[in-house]
Amino acid sequence: MHSAVVTRWHGRLSLGLLLAPALLWLAALIVLPHVDLAVLSFRVRVGPRDYVASLAQYKTFFTEPLYWHVFVRTALMSVAATLLTLLLAFPIAWIIAKLQTGRAGSWLFILCLIPFWVSETVRTLGWMILLRESGVLPSLLVKLGLTAVPVELLYHDATILVGLIYTSLLFMVIPLISSLESLDNSLIEAAYDLGAGGFVILRTIVIPHAAPGITAGCIVVFMLTLGNYLTPTLLGGKNSQWFTEQIYTQFITRFNWEQGAAFGFLLLALSTAMVVIGLRITGQRFGDVMRRT
Amino acid sequence: MSTADLVADAVTKRFADHAAVNALSFSVERGSFFSILGPSGCGKTTLLRMIAGFIAPDSGDIAIGGRSMRDVPPNRRPVNMVFQQLALFPMMSVGGNVAFGLARRGVARAERDRRSHAMLERVGLGSSAGKRVDELSGGQRQRVAIARSLVLEPTLLLLDEPLGALDLKLREHMKIELKQLQAAFGTTFVYITHDQSEALVLSDHVGVMSHGSFEQLGTPQDLYYRPQTPFVASFVGANNRIVGRATGRDGALVEITTADGWLIRARGLGSIGAGDAVEGFVRPETASLGRQAPELPGGQPSHAGTVQSLLFDGANSAVLLQEARTRREFRIALPQTGQFSDLRPGESVLFSFDPERAVCFPARPGAAGQDA
Question: Considering CB atoms only, which of B54, B83, B101 is closest to A195?
């Protein structure tokens, strides 16, 4: 009797110890800061060291056009970057999962992975070297006679998109490969045999099969893009108008932590809402999607 | 006069330096059940995939319904295929699977539903249209796969060992069902299998394939009773194979003497000269068994043997003997009369067979000396 109790207690202790790092990480780095930020976001400073509870921070966001303009712009650009990443990643994943066998497929995958051995800052600076007015690509365009003078390729929305897609590609390719690899080739042949052409097979067989992988990749890429600070700032410069920059400005430049915290929660609400909407549109459940990746 | 739905003319396909299908020509009559029987690696799957259009032949031509299929892709051929693993679409309902091909032909939704439902009724799955594929049993899936193809009314239905994945009981059942379906629909079936019993039971005609070409093409009865090559004799049905040299000839009958001195006689096929290496085949059911000489049919040379083991298998029961002098194994089917139900291993018996019903061929290269 006694030993059974001890054994059970031991079991619980070892389970607790196993989970401890994860739980600590979750509590200390995610839950606690968010609780603190939530408290911050719902108060307003009325005098030195004097705060009262208020919705003023959120009100500012809705009354100041700049803020919600940047907010909507960030959301739309992130959606665009996600969809473009999907369009680019799908053929890559298809080639690796279906057309290449053995070593060739592994090598192609490694090619996708290699850029990630370098830090994001260095990679983005690489893009700047290529694209700035005195950089490699503008001078090449002049040499080829396509432009009379070097053009500035940095600080455009398209540049930001290129940078974001480059950063996100791998996170789209991986779930796509795993979902396409599990697609039985005989299903494609059967559809072909029953009279379907390439596009119909893609629409009726391949995409429904790969849907959880596509959704998982889109969720990851959308969240990474929405929360990205470095790429829009470096490649978009002052024109980037990314919402994370607004948060940075509030916290660091203005030292208005209350406003920054409110912005942070608005961004969290946005990404949650977009994921929920995306799952609703494609008729999938979050649990299924996460299991497939 | 019936017409041919499928005509293959000198079809060849090579992979690297090996000919998977070698200058194969044959035709399949409209409404018949044609099987291609062969061991794995004989090229039958390659042949089927060429008919379906997934592989292009290197040379030769395939005509379906009187029309050459050169450069016609699979989705434009009047041919549908039932895949080995069935390849039903798990992302669609049973009804969706059957309606898939109709939708590709631009049939309107209402008509599509009506026709796919009618087809499911015909295969006995009328109430399953709304079910998911994984809710069906193995046999039901089989029927959905066939319904999915037949709803398109193809000139030719190709079946790629569709019974291979089923357990024995269900396979026996589906064999009968397939034959009935084919009779009911009247569609020309081309069926590939490595299982000779499937081919014999189902087919009107069978092509026995080995190393990329047909060894023999004929009715199941032809293959069984009148094999034309030693490969067919040993591949189709059970057979006692006896390797030796031709030591004499009496009209059509050839006298075979094995290396260890056993002498039998069999009908000779092909050019057999005196002293040539030959392979003889005796069907287990053509041999008679007896404890005493008068029990054996008269006028047949009799042989002596010892019972080695009894192979009880209901109606297919057999006894494995050892020929008395050479210790060679010889299999004899037991009669259903129960006459030999008390036979025991070690018992001495006599056996004989009609030399007219045994056959022998010139030995294949490399086949001499080894026993099957």
Answer: B101
Separation CA B1–CA A107 (nearest Å): 60
Q: Mean pLDDT throughout A21-44?
A: 89
Q: What is the rounded CA–CA span in Å between residue B243 and residue B245?
A: 7
Q: How many domains does chain A have?
A: 1
If you count residue pairs, one on A and one on B, with CB atoms under 8 Å apart, how many are there?
Answer: 58
d(CA B247, CA B154): 55
Whether residue A23 lies inside any domain: the answer is no
Q: Among the CATH numbers 3.50.50.60, 2.30.110.10, 1.10.287.610, 2.40.50.140, which is that of B238-362? A: 2.40.50.140
DSSP secondary structure letters along B85-127 = TB---TTSBHHHHHHHHHHHTT--HHHHHHHHHHHHHHTT-GG
Contact list in A for residue B104 (CB cut-off 8 A) is: 194-196, 200
The reply to whether B238-362 shares the fold of B4-231 is no
pLDDT at B369: 47
Task: Give the domain range for residue A222.
Answer: 56-117+166-291
* A194/B87 Cβ within 8 A: no
- Chain B contact for A186, CB < 8 A? yes
Task: Look at residue A83 and tell me whether its pLDDT is greater than 90.
Answer: yes
- Helix (H), strand (E), coil (C) string for A29-56: HHHHHHHHHHHHHCEEEEECCEEEECCH
- B105 neighbourhood in chain A, CB within 8 Å: 195
**What was the pLDDT predicted at B1?**
40
The structure tokens listed for A221 are: 């890429």
Distance from A285 to chain B by nearest Cα, in Å? 16
Q: In what order do the strands lie in the sheet containing B33-37?
A: B79-82, B156-160, B188-193, B33-37, B205-210, B213-218
How many Å apart are CA A20 and CA A27, to the nearest integer? 10
pLDDT tens digits for range B37-80: 999 889 999 999 999 999 999 999 999 999 999 999 999 999 99
Q: Does A216 map to a domain?
A: yes
Contact A184 B87 (CB under 8 A): yes
Chain A residues inside the 8 Å CB shell of B74: 189, 192-193
Which ranges constitute the DSSP H helices of chain B? 44-52, 94-104, 109-122, 138-150, 168-185, 196-202, 220-225, 230-235
CATH number of domain containing A223: 1.10.3720.10
* Distance separating alpha carbons of residues A257 and A38, to the nearest angstrom: 11
Instruction: Sketch the domain layout of chain B as residue ranges.
Output: 4-231, 238-362
Which residues in B lie closer than 8 A to residue A204 (C-beta atoms)? 89, 91-92, 100
Q: Is residue A252 part of a domain?
A: yes
Dihedral angle over CA of A211, A212, A216, A222, nearest 10: 30
Task: Tell me the C-alpha distance between B228 and B222, whole Å.
Answer: 9
Nearest by CB: B87 against A190, A200, A209: A190
Which residue among A196, A205, A209 places its CB closest to the CB of B75? A196
Strand partners, B35: B191, B206
* Residue-level pLDDT at B368: 47
From CA A227, how far away is CA A249, in angstroms rounded?
15
How far, in Å, CA of A65 to CA of B9, rounded? 77
**Would A41 be classed as within a structural domain?**
no
CA distance A170 to A174: 6
Q: Mind listing the pLDDT tens digit for each residue in A186-240?
A: 999 999 999 999 999 999 999 999 999 999 999 999 999 999 999 999 999 887 8
Average pLDDT, chain A: 90
As a CATH number, domain B4-231 is: 3.40.50.300
Question: Contacts of residue B91 in chain A, CB cutoff 8 Å?
Answer: 204-205, 208-209
